[in-house]
Specification:
Elements (H helix, E strand, L loop, with lengths): L13 H24 L5 H34 L5 H30 L4 H34 L3 H15 L4
Helix pairs in contact: 1-2, 1-4, 2-3, 2-5, 3-4
Length: 171
């Protein structure tokens, strides 16, 4: 098996939880690239890994984007990072078509795990996603997360509660 989704979060701080999300974005993006390069994998393993990537990018990643757009962005406005917040928002919007392409390519490879053209299509879009995501994540980690860490403890606790509420079944 190429990657497990993992267990419960290890981090207890808001920045720690956000960094864990960022690590999952990196891990699943790299997994998609790896799938595009591994013609030697059994079809079942390819299908399983594609399905896990599809689930991550269609279910979990939108929750993380909502965390940033709905919980962080309003609390960080006016903290001398408005340009970075605008860039973050614009990057989220720019990721949408790449994610649609990525999900399509993953589905196609899942359905035809030995197809060289499907693997090549996935490789092209997955590498673009890795590059786009890394630029985006680096901006957040270097510019926004220090400001997040400096928010009052009560504000951080509210954000953590919102993050957890988004992930509760039926939320």
């Amino acid at each position: 098996m190429l990657v497990n989704l993992g267990g419960p979060p290890k981090a207890e701080t808001l920045v720690g939880l956000l960094l864990e999300c960022h690590e999952r974005i990196r891990r699943f993006s790299r997994l998609a690239v790896e799938l595009s390069r591994r013609a030697d994998l059994p079809a079942g393993e390819v299908g399983d890994a594609c399905a896990r990537c599809e689930r991550y990018f269609s279910e979990a990643l939108p929750l993380h984007v909502a965390d940033e757009e709905d919980s962080l962005l309003p609390r960080l406005r006016g903290h001398a990072v408005d340009a970075a917040l605008a860039a973050m928002h614009a990057q989220h919007e720019a990721h949408r078509p790449v994610l649609v392409e990525l999900l399509t390519a993953l589905r196609q490879l899942r359905e035809a795990p030995s197809s060289a053209p499907c693997r090549a299509r996935l490789g092209a879009v997955a590498q673009r996603a890795v590059t786009d995501f890394e630029q985006h994540l680096t901006l957040e980690e270097q510019v926004l997360f220090p400001v997040v860490a400096a928010l009052p403890a009560e504000a951080q606790a509210q954000v953590v509660a919102e993050l957890r509420a988004r992930r509760r079944p039926g939320a």
